[in-house]
Each structure stands twice: as structure tokens, then as C-alpha cells.
Amino acid sequence: MKNRPAYAIASVDSALLLATLLQQEGAMRVTDAAARLEVSVSTAHRLLGMLVYRDFAEQLPDRRYGPGPVLRRGPVQQASVATLRDAALPHLRELVEAVGETANVMVLTGPDVRFVATVESAHVLRVGDRTGRTLPAHLSSGGKAVLATLDAERLGAVLAPLDGAVSARLERELARVRRRGFAVNDQGTEAGLTAVGVAVPPAGGFDGAALSVAAPRVRYSTDRLPLWTARLAEAAGAVAHDLSAG
């Protein structure tokens, strides 16, 4: 039996308990959460807001809160993620130095991609750290780059829940990604943000990873694509080499 830590942080304990309740019991209203935690409604609302921010919860159309992508999806193998992060970080730093924009490494988890590490650019106006966040794979640049590498069975499992028109449009886009070797997310997940992604070649028993460069839309133009995609491909190959060597 575990004892409560001597210097427990009440807010952290409440957030973790609330995440557990969402995972085990499903959606609840703010007032339900407040009653379960024995806190004020305003405190419950702030806790839920942080869980939504970190993808442990999401707000449903009926204004209740349900478990978010982190709680719904199977866990990523920790050792593999740590290995990928260690292999990718030096190359992300070089990528940021080369293109002047924020760079990310992510991994496919079911129908989503989870950001494993970010290196931010030095610009005042820049895309911030996405570490720990998840996005639908079919909308993100890195996610689409990975989806384009999947076999028919694995891709079909991702496409199955999507609307027929969305699925057909995505299949056409993935065909272009296979031809070009990169994917673009032009404000598909966030207004004012454009990203370009490239899949990391399978290596060292690890697949399903991608690198991306993300920038404010005001600094993006198609003239930058050749540099971005060349540097991304170079970095992805270097990450795969280091994974194999490890």
C-alpha cells in the first residue's frame, strides 16, 4: 500500500486524479468534476483546461469533458521514444540552424502523431514547443509523411473512421506525398501555421517517425520548399543512420 507523499502538491494530485476519473469513468461536466474532487467549480474548470491543453482531456460538443488522445491511445514504448529523441535532437538543432524555423520529431500512435521533441527557432514570432502534444495524423505534415509509407492494412485502419470524402481526398494527397517525398500542412491544424514533414526511414527496429519544420504562415512561401525538404531529408536520413548504429 502506497503512502501519500509527505510534501504532496495538491494541484498536481487533483489533476492526476481527474485524468484517472476521465479515463475510467468517461465524460463528465465541470460540476461533476468539482464534486468528485471536492473543489470549487472554478478550480475544476482550470484543471480541465490544463488537461485539455496537454491532450489528457477534450471538450465535447455537449460541453462535457472526456478523455483526450493521450488517455485514449495505447502508450508509445518508452525505450523506443527515448532512443528516437536522443538520436533526433542533434539533427533537429542542425535543421533549425539551417532553415531558421522550429523543428520537431514525432511518432505515429494509432491515428495520431505524438510530438517527441522540439527545437525552437530564435525568432520572436515562432512556432513553440509541441513536445507531448498529439495531432490527427491525417492533418499534420509529419503524420501524412508517415501515413504515405504504410501498407494497405495499416493505412486502412487509420482511414476507416474518417468520412468517405475526407478519406478519398487524403488518399489522393498521400499519392502526391509518395511521389514528392514530403508532406505539407498549410494551416490544417492551426490558423497561421504551416509545416513541412518527411518520414524517417525505418531503422534499428523503429518505424513510424517523422521530422517536420514549422513556421508562422507569414514567413512561409513555396520558394522555401526546396531548402526545407532537402534539409529535412538529410536530417531524417541522419536520424535513421544513428538509430541503426545504436
* Major β-sheet annotation: 6 strands, antiparallel
The percent of residues in helical segments reads 40-55%
- Run of helices and strands: HHHEEHHEEEHHHEEEH
Q: Compute the number of helices.
A: 9
Question: Termini, distance in Å?
Answer: 39 Å
- Helix-strand category: alpha+beta
Global mean pLDDT:
90
Q: What is the tally of beta strands?
A: 8
Strand adjacency order, main sheet: 5-4-3-8-7-6
Residue stretches low in confidence (pLDDT < 50, at least 5 long) are: none
Query: Quick one: overall form?
Result: globular
Alpha-carbon Rg, integer: 20 Å
Strand coverage percent: 15-25%
Offer a concise description of the structure.
The chain has helices at residues 10-25, 30-37, 41-53, 69-72, 78-99, 141-147, 152-159, 164-180, 225-245, and strands at residues 57-59, 65-67, 102-109, 112-119, 134-136, 183-186, 193-199, 209-216. By secondary structure, it is of the alpha+beta class. The N and C termini lie far apart (39 Å).
What are the key terms here?
246 residues, 9 helices, six-stranded antiparallel sheet, globular, alpha+beta, two-stranded antiparallel ribbon, 18% strand
Task: Lay out the secondary structure.
Layout: H1 10-25, H2 30-37, H3 41-53, E1 57-59, E2 65-67, H4 69-72, H5 78-99, E3 102-109, E4 112-119, E5 134-136, H6 141-147, H7 152-159, H8 164-180, E6 183-186, E7 193-199, E8 209-216, H9 225-245
Describe this structure in words.
There is one protein chain. This protein is of the alpha+beta class and 246 residues long. The chain has nine helices and eight strands. It starts with 9 loop residues before the first helix and ends with a helix. The mean pLDDT is 90.
